[in-house]
Amino acid sequence: LRFRVNHGAIIFFHCHMIHNFKGLAVTFIAAPDLLQKHMKVPNEVIRMCKLQNIKTSGNAAGNAGFDLTGLPQPLLVNHGAAIGFAERVELFWDIGRLNISRDGYSTWKSMCVNNAVPIPPVHVTQGDVLVLNVRNSLDVPTAVHAHGIYHNYTDYYDGAEMVTECGIPQGENFTYIIDTTNQVGDLWIHGHAHSQLTDGFRTPFIIHEKVKPSTYDEEKLLYFEDWNERAFKDMVAIDAKLKPADFPPLYRTMLINGVNANMSKSLHFEPRKRYRLRILSLSTSSWIKFRMPGHTMHVISKDGVEAEPMEVDGLDLGPGQRESIIVTAHDTAEFNYMYNVTLYANFIPLYPGLMPRYYSGLIEYQKKAPLANIPAVDDAQLVWNDVINMQARDRMPLLPVDRQIMLSIKQFTPEHGIPYYSFGDYAFNHSLVPILFTALSMGELASNSSVYGPQAQAHILQYGESIELLVYNDNSKDHSLHLHRGEYQVVEVGPYGDAVANNRTVVEFQKSGPSPMRCDVVTVRAYSYIKLRFHVNRGMVALFRCHMMHGGYFGLAATFIAAPELLQKYVKVPEEVIRMCKLRGIKTSGNAAGNEGFDMTGLPPPFLVNRE
After folding, report:
1. Would you list the DSSP string of 480-514?
2. Residue 555 burial by CB count (10 A; 0-12/13-18/19+): exposed, middle or buried?
3. Tens-digit pLDDT profile for residues 171-230
């Protein structure tokens, strides 16, 4: 359609059908300078507005300038609208719950954004600034964590409730500003308060390169989620009344790209094309095995860090882990193929059809083509994506060790209720003052771990030192461990505890190569140990935690306070961050109890886990 703009006008262009009238429309504002010069609005028109209490001046919200306070959130129809390739990508998220069956089996109030699920993936280009405007329509506070973002001296946007911020009170608005200048790759965004991640507050966050790499023709996104039969708080309420031996097993189902895995769409391949598949595990307590029988897979990145291409038969991803692979399509479209996904966890009882669960999806070359006959192969005969065997693409050498910090995973199982976990004697729990604000307000005492309280499991790191974390897991459960605000080298794994005592080969002893792979989530298997190294290159408050539903929620976390003197020098907390704290009645200075010095009066006693 073509038309000529020959005068100033407000032109409404809309669908004239009854069902589409609400929403299917755009507005053309033609020559507003001529409108202002020649249009004289009759008093009777103004009177009609006054009778309805409608303003007749100002922006869309009736305010001055670009202040849109009071304007209702727009309804997001095109989930692709979250994709932006500009210097500033602005999103509006109204966070709430929606009563829905997402897996086809159970119906309960899932977390949602803008009253819709799944939450649309977020795509930006390196260098963009993501402006995430959040409205909390829940009945509890919320917080939003951009998992994998470094946050150079903007720790207050990390989204870890009561660690780097106070969270967003119910009924309030807050804006996260996320700079992607120095990052690319496969990240994700999720809730970081009140187990909202487990209840579905999660979506991929992809930072694209400024110039598309020439190593592939097209990219596709596949993300996997485990799904519970009820909300997390309801599961906890049931388990709290039972002895641990009587807990009902959690046989979870799976979502693929946000929908019931049994209804997932096909992957469309064209002959001879090279594809980048971004594979993300947004699981909360289950591991994911992914295979494409009949195709060759090369891992090229892990958790947003580029890797030397490594040929594998399959991916084994723990909660929060992400990898990109390159797959070359076959030369012809003679056959279609299947991809296979296994959902499993080593601490859930085996039961045919329920644990593990098996899913598959179609790799479609052409409609109605027959399926290729690919013989089944036992997992033990396949090559998997073991991080200890991967090498970083930038060839960063193995870091020296200035200091080793030893963390040992402990578990305490009460007579009734859910077990508690810790990296030391006490389970991690929130302070009365966010840890960042204690680091900023305590002066020289901020370099003394005691001011953060025993429940913070705080470790003070010095600028410029290289840290080795030695994590022991003398526990029957696998754990998925995440470091906020950075990544670590994975340098060594081996058996430990019960595995050694009983000569069990759970994990074999292995060391990395000269350029260890870096990542921000790593699996430490049952009865094993792992060594991780990272360099302290700035001031920060970083949470190190189990990314699993029960481990993270019931104490398995520690805090690293790096170079607090640099935090005090460079971090300027925005007034809006402080306002969120004031609305919740939370102090923004003082030690863990909100007091001076080492006075912990008022701080709840920590929960003792290590009772040996």
Report:
1. EEEETTS-EEEEEEEE-THHHHTT--SS--EE--S
2. buried
3. 999 999 999 998 999 999 999 998 899 999 999 999 999 988 889 999 999 999 999 999
Give 80-104 as a DSSP string. Answer: GGGB--SSEEEEEEEEEEEEE-SSS
Burial grade of 153 (CB within 10 A; 0-12, 13-18, 19 or more):
middle
Q: Which residues pair with 543 in a beta bridge?
A: 559
User: Are 289 and 379 spatial neighbours (Cβ–Cβ below 8 Å)?
Assistant: yes
Contact by Cβ (8 Å): 522, 529: no
- Which among 459, 463, 455, 448 is positioned nearest to 433, based on CA atoms? 455
DSSP string covering 320-353: T-EEEEEEEPPSS-S-BEEEEEEEE-TTS--BTT
d(CA 118, CA 102) in angstroms, rounded, equals 9
The CA angle 338-341-344, to the nearest 5 degrees, is: 160
Token digits for 451?
Answer: 């001011």
> What is the per-residue pLDDT across 52-107, written as a single tens digit (0 to 9) for each?
999 999 999 898 876 677 777 566 554 333 444 448 999 999 999 999 999 988 99
Residue 358 and residue 271 in contact, taking contact as beta carbons nearer than 8 Å = no
* Continuous segment of H or E residues that includes residue 32: helix 32-38
Please answer whether residues 548 and 348 qualify as being in contact, where contact means their C-beta atoms are separated by less than 8 angstroms.
Answer: no
**pLDDT single digits (tens) 137-164:** 999 999 999 999 999 999 999 999 999 9
- Cis check for the bond before 118: say yes or no (omega within 30 of 0): yes
Contact 463, 566 (CB under 8 A): yes
Q: Mean of the pLDDT values across residues 506-522?
A: 95
What mean pLDDT, rounded, does the chain reach? 92
For 243, residues 6+ apart whose C-beta sits below 8 A from its C-beta are 415, 416
Stretch 419-447: mean pLDDT, rounded?
96
How far apart, in whole angstroms, are the C-alpha atoms of residue 201 and residue 195?
A: 9
